[in-house]
Amino acid sequence: MWQIRPILAALRRHRLATLLIALEIALACAVLCNACFLITNRLQRMKLDIGVDEASLATIQLTGFEGANVKDLNARMLSGLRAIDGVQSVSVINTVPFGQQAGTVGIFLSPSAQHVSAVIDVYVGGPGSMQALGLKLIEGHAPQESDYQPVDNIFPNDAQVLITRSLADHLWPGVDPLGKEFWCDTYHFQVMGVIDRLAIAQPGSRGASSVDWSVFAPGQPGQSLAGSYLLRADPKDIPRVLRDARLAVSKLAPDAVLDQEDSQLLSDLRYRYFENDRAMSRVLIGVIAALLLVTALGIVGLASFWVGQRRKQIGIRRAIGATRGDILRYFQVENFLIVSFGVVLGIVLAYACNLLLMKRYELAQLPFYYMPIGAIVLWLLGQLAVLGPALRAAAVPPVVATRSV
């Protein structure tokens, strides 16, 4: 501790250099904390549980078919796809998680309500689609045969539906949702069951809180429910099943066009959907590495400059009894004080940046534990960066004190 007062006195004589390094460390601390938080959020987002058995599922998407022939198209596709070896089930559905956005609507809790209670995704699925998805029913009952009603343009009307637990908690907090009703334009829905989870088609596109705001509406395949097919097979067979299904489309539906981009395994749709998140994480990791490298080089440069300036002073200290360890500790403590000052500024800057991100991009609040982690990383970086110059300073021989300036 006896060294701190002379160290502070020396730093006051080099205010500008000390301030520049401290500001560089503050910027590194702020970027490090927020970038690590963003990377963690992206990684958690990529691990999202969508509530379906995606390892067993694939989808076939057709376009370009005539509306007048959809009944025959559905019949041909369902029959032909079921004949593929390894297929456990085939059903018609309007979309799948990570697929094309369909059925996104605002809903009201009464026909006369003026304000939307929630923006949701409505999955409209034919017989067998709920079982194929692997939805977990936690309350109420699953759709019966009579619940599969004709689809009127977009949705079946007066439909008995399943809603997710998070949507039920949002619409009717603390109340049993079974039998509750809601509306969308002229469409009326009544809750017959609650499922654990079912992510919207584009999860995260409307904020983290609404990832599971989904409804499953049973509907009869027909004019407004055609061209999108859900295949289920054993996870080890599903890649081959999808390949065979894609090859079979040209024979089963010569009057339609296979959408190559969206006819995929659900696992591949997930991978594609989060490609931007992976790219962003890689960019942020690169930014962190570059900033830490620049900070380390700045510390090395400043320490090396000070060692060169203080060679005679170091030699004098060695001549009057200072050990190499004393010289080494001097530079390490000096660096620790500069880094600590920068970390304090960095914590303030990190929270300011986080508040800006919260306001502009609806990011969550930065947890406090990122601050000590960032401080420890920078302290370690500072000590490692100053070690080389400090060892050179400790190696200065006492004879330097006898040389003329």
UniProtKB/TrEMBL annotation:
Keywords: Cell membrane, Membrane, Transmembrane, Transmembrane helix. It is a multi-pass membrane protein. The chain crosses the membrane at residues 16-39, 283-307, 336-357, 369-391. Residues 287-394 form the ABC3 transporter permease C-terminal domain. Coiled coil: none annotated. It is found in: Cell membrane. Its main location: membrane. It holds the Pfam family FtsX. Belongs to the ABC-4 integral membrane protein family. This is FtsX-like permease family protein. The lineage of its organism: Bacteria, Pseudomonadati, Pseudomonadota, Gammaproteobacteria, Lysobacterales.
